[in-house]
Amino acid sequence: MFENIISFRANEAYIDSNQDILPIPAKLNIPEWFKKLQHTVDKKTIKGCMPFLDSITAGYILKLPLDYQVKHNVMHEGKRQTGADSPQAFYHGLSPKINLNLSGYKEFHNSIQLEGSPLVEKNNNLAVHKILNPWIIKTPPGYSTLFIPPLNNTDDRFEIITGIVDTDLFENEINFPIIFNGYKYESLDTILPRGTPYVQCIPFKRDRWKFEIKKQDEKKYHQSKFFEHKFMLNNYKKRFWQKKSWK
Predict the structure, then answer these.
(1) Where is 119: in which H helix or E strand?
(2) Domain range annotation of the chain
(3) 0.85 surpassed by pTM
(4) What integer pLDDT is reported at residue 79 of this predicted model?
(5) What distance in Å separates the CA atoms of residue 57 and residue 243, rounded to the nearest whole number?
(6) What is the pLDDT of residues 51-61, one digit of tens each?
(7) Count of Cβ atoms closer than 10 Å to residue 233 Cβ
(8) Which of 174, 142, 130 is nearest to 8 (CA)?
(9) Which residues contact 164 (CB under 8 A, 6 or more apart)?
(10) First-last CA distance in the chain
(11) How many helices and strands in the chain, by DSSP H and E?
(12) By the 8 A CB rule, do 153 and 131 touch?
C-alpha cells in the first residue's frame, strides 16, 4: 500500500495535449545501453550493481515541455550569445497559466550570482538561463524534494543546478536554472528536443540528524558480513539489497 503520494499538478489543457511527456517514474527512463548489458559469472558488469540501479530508478522524471533552441557562446554581431528559447507558439493565450515562456523574454541569473563557483566556468562565464516548468509539485507534510540532473543518465550538453524545495509548503511552479557543458562544447547551437528527460525528482522525509566518527576494531571489521561472499553472482543483491517502490 502506498501512503506517500507526490502530486504533479498542471493546467488541464496542458495535460490533455501533452500525454506523451507527462512526469514518469524514473524506472521508465533506464538508458538503452544499460538494458543491453549482460551480467554473468564470467562477465561481471555494472548491470549487477544494485546501488547504480537504485540511483537511476529513484523518484520521478520531468521532461522538457517544448523544443528549446540553444545558442550558447555563439557570436552574433560581435557579442557572445547565450540562452534557451522555446520557439513554438501553439499555447498562445494560455502561456501565463502554464508557466511556459513563449514571449521571447529570457529568465536568467547573472553569472555574478554564482561568483567563485566552478559552474560559472563550466557555463563559459555566461548568464545562467532557466527553463520554465509547468508543474506544481506537492508532497505530504514533512516531505521535501531533491531536484537533480537524471542520475548516471544525463544529457552531456546541459544539466540543471541541483536544489531542494520544501514541496509540502511551496505552492508554485519550480523553475530550473541550467548550466551548459562548456568543458566539452566550446559553443552550442542546437535544439534540445521536447520530451528530453532533464530533472529527476526524489521526495524525502525531513528529519534531524547528527553525525559521529567512531573507530572500527580491525578484527571485527574483517569479520563483518560484508566480507562473507556466499554467492559468486549478485552477492549484495541477495544478501543486503532492499527493494524500493516508485509508482
Answers:
(1) helix 118-122
(2) 7-216
(3) yes
(4) 78
(5) 11
(6) 999 999 999 99
(7) 12
(8) 174
(9) 144, 145, 146, 147
(10) 11
(11) 7, 16
(12) no
